[in-house]
Amino acid sequence: MLDKIKTFFNNMSVKEKMMWIILSISTTVMLITVFAFSFNGVINIKKQLRDEIAITATIISNRANTAIFYQNNTDVKEILS
Question: Which residues form the domain of 68?
């Protein structure tokens, strides 16, 4: 198999070899860029989800604290259920 590849490249002109090298480098850079953007997107989605959960927890906590402060048992049961 390796011999076939060597023969394939040995039979190519310099122009074709340069084209293959440039094409290989461009493809590699493109794949690395796509991976980097995808990884960055996943990190941002996780951070956004964490922030939204923290905000929701804060809102629920504030509602529960207010209901407890005013001794409104019905609202406390509703919030905690």
Answer: 2-80
